[in-house]
Amino acid sequence: MTTEVQIQPQAASTPAWAMLRTLGGIALLSGLLVALVYQFTLPIIAENQRVLTEKAVFRVLPGAVGKRDFVITPEGGLAPAEAGASGDLIYGAYDAGGRLLGLAITGSGPGYAGPVKVMFAYDPSCDCITGSKVLQSNETPGFGDKLDFDPDFLKNFEALDARLDAAGTALANAIVTVKHGTKSEPWQIDAITGATISSKAMGRAANSAAQRAVPAIERDLAVLTSPPSP
């Protein structure tokens, strides 16, 4: 008996160039979708950031009903923030009559689990920081939270000295965090027991914010108190 063996025809293989073309098309489409989503969400993200910043300004400067944004110029002064303006931002806070209540300035310092970004209130009438609000922190829950809520720690920012030196170009005394219970100077921050690293991050954030912003504020204080341009 003769057995016939049927040979199945091999399926034609897909050319390599065709696969590459397909993969390239998928990659191009994916990139286009990502770009479209980014362009769509960018204004939403910017608006959310604006609202969060405004809330933080009004929290550190209670009584304010309006704010104006300024940038620190390359020359070390201040100018009203406009579209396309570059430079570190500071925020002037005003009461209903347009009187300047203080400035909101920001700084950051390395914490236990990453940078701690903080907004501080600066009062030119006392040359001091009068409030604080943590904007970004990854510190250990239960310890890092105290930076915003511990009443004893927050007393550090009721009148934290930020006076300038005789030249007006830097703080007369750098703001530093000291061991809990050892504060002896108005420019020192009394650390939280058990959260020394986080406390030091706040000190570094306050010092960096004041060193950068206070010289510009004191130099161009008239810009802050003058009426806004129509």
TrEMBL record:
Belongs to the RnfG family. It is a single-pass membrane protein. Residues 111-213 form the FMN-binding domain. Its EC number is 7.-.-.-. Its main location: membrane. It comes from Allochromatium vinosum (strain ATCC 17899 / DSM 180 / NBRC 103801 / NCIMB 10441 / D). Keywords: Cell inner membrane, Cell membrane, Electron transport, Flavoprotein, FMN, Membrane, Phosphoprotein, Translocase, Transmembrane, Transmembrane helix, Transport. One of its GO terms (biological process) is electron transport chain. Part of a membrane-bound complex that couples electron transfer with translocation of ions across the membrane. HAMAP family: RsxG_RnfG. The gene is rnfG. The complex is composed of six subunits: RnfA, RnfB, RnfC, RnfD, RnfE and RnfG. Signal peptide: none annotated. PANTHER family: ION-TRANSLOCATING OXIDOREDUCTASE COMPLEX SUBUNIT G. This is Ion-translocating oxidoreductase complex subunit G.
